Amino acid sequence: MSRIAVVGMGYVGLTTASCLADLGNDVFGLDVDVKKTRRLQDSKAPFYEPDLQELLTRNAVAGRLRFTSNYAEAIPSAEFVFIAVGTPMDSTGAADLDNVRAASAAIAPHLRSHAVIVNKSTVPIGTGDIVSEIVRSATGNPAFALVSNPEFLREGSAILDFMHPDRVVLGARGREAASRVGELYAPLGAPVLVTTLQTAEMIKYACNAFLATKISFINEVARLCERVGADVKVVAEGMGMDSRIGASFLDAGLGYGGSCFPKDVSALARSAEQSGAQPQLLHAVMDINNGQPQLVVEKLSNLLGTVRGCTIGLLGLSFKPNTDDMREAPSIALVRTLQERGALVRAYDPAAMESARVNLPDVVLCEDAYEVAEGCDGLIVVTEWNEFRQLNMPRIKGVMRRPVIVDGRNMYSPDELRALGFSYAGVGR
Ligand SMILES: NC(=O)c1ccc[n+]([C@@H]2O[C@H](COP(=O)([O-])OP(=O)(O)OC[C@H]3O[C@@H](n4cnc5c(N)ncnc54)[C@H](O)[C@@H]3O)[C@@H](O)[C@H]2O)c1
């Protein structure tokens, strides 16, 4: 059993805190957001994530998981202090490190000797040195160690991913600190890669940039497929059967979104530029992705003649299924474009309605997919939630003003929908 503090109770921090508590450790979760902390003290998960609520309740009841907003309460007893605060994109496209700096400065005065600070936030290469310097100059405590431990979990399967990682990456100056952190992960039985701070930080960015590249690559192939009469879904299937390529992240559609890929690709590109390199591929990846929502609106406009004066329904709003996260979701760019072009937008999402009320105040929010379809001139599939797979399509058609669907996630069979009388367009088919 180790004593652990986790700073930042977002998707990564709360998952880390809950899972480490479940592995038998004594964990304090800390967040500066007092409202969030109060919810957590009442054992209420502040966002939707499968299995999180159960894990939270179980470990709080067992007394292994506590929450506070007070650094003086959480840090002094901790042998390990995880930093999992947000690192959003700043106005230049680089990573904004204000939260990391603030957390490091707040941790410093309370840090016990020989504690290990473990950074889980996704940060530009060299940030480990910045954190070390902040802590060292604030405390004069030379006996702490810093380990970079990038997180690879995915929202929507965060608990599962944390408990069954493909690998654990640990970057450190010395082997001892890395092996102490490695011990925390030992029960998971995952391979552990120990390297330098800089290399660990780079591994995280390189992974996200590569996955984003796969998505933009298949979207570029989709654009070509449409011109030459090929079906990108089958192309991706054929590519995915090649073990050198792999089937994941080859879904053509509205593009990537969320709190990670957009900001991480951009931050890596900015880092590259600042170091004098020319990140041509990363720029192409971002350009293609930014164009996808526009392309989908174009398809709808072609089917309808115009979207001006039309009522358009969106199925899904979150950036991907099984999460309520709408940060950088393609739905936001889609709504903006549709409204700029004079359309009225209605929408439904199984989990993101609360965020939608904040992020999309001018959108009419509905109770379910059937209510969205009522009186619509066109529907766009935005998020591939399972509950949209088995919709009663004749019923949907019955309530729409015009039976037009643009399938931004290639969820449906074009032939089946056309046979039902829909005008249908997918992406790259
Ligand atoms: N969300 C993901 O899927 C994911 C996956 C891997 C890595 N990451 C990375 O992990 C980091 C955290 O991401 P997230 O999605 O969990 O963020 P989030 O925005 O959901 O949560 C961050 C939390 O940190 C808190 N916070 C900010 N400053 C603080 C401070 N000084 N002290 C204490 N708390 C503070 C905020 O109040 C918030 O609750 C980011 O760097 C992100 O890139 C995210």
From TrEMBL:
Reaction catalysed by this enzyme: UDP-alpha-D-glucose + 2 NAD(+) + H2O = UDP-alpha-D-glucuronate + 2 NADH + 3 H(+)
Enzyme Commission no: 1.1.1.22
GO molecular function: NAD binding; UDP-glucose 6-dehydrogenase activity
InterPro entries: 6-PGluconate_DH-like_C_sf, NAD(P)-bd_dom_sf, UDP-Glc/GDP-Man, UDP-Glc/GDP-Man_DH_C, UDP-Glc/GDP-Man_DH_C_sf, UDP-Glc/GDP-Man_DH_dimer, UDP-Glc/GDP-Man_DH_N, UDPglc_DH_bac
List of residues binding NAD(+): 31, 36, 87, 122, 155, 263, 327
Keywords of this entry: NAD, Oxidoreductase
Active site per the UniProt annotation: 260
Highest rank taxon of the organism: Bacteria
Pathway(s) of this molecule: Nucleotide-sugar biosynthesis; UDP-alpha-D-glucuronate biosynthesis; UDP-alpha-D-glucuronate from UDP-alpha-D-glucose: step 1/1
Membrane-spanning parts: none
A Pfam family per the record: UDPG_MGDP_dh_C
Any single GO BP term: polysaccharide biosynthetic process
Top EC group: oxidoreductase
Gene3D superfamilies registered for this protein in UniProt: Cytochrome c1, transmembrane anchor, C-terminal (1.20.5.100), NAD(P)-binding Rossmann-like Domain (3.40.50.720)
Similarity comment: Belongs to the UDP-glucose/GDP-mannose dehydrogenase family.
Name under which the protein is recorded: UDP-glucose 6-dehydrogenase
Biological source species: Candidatus Aeolococcus gillhamiae
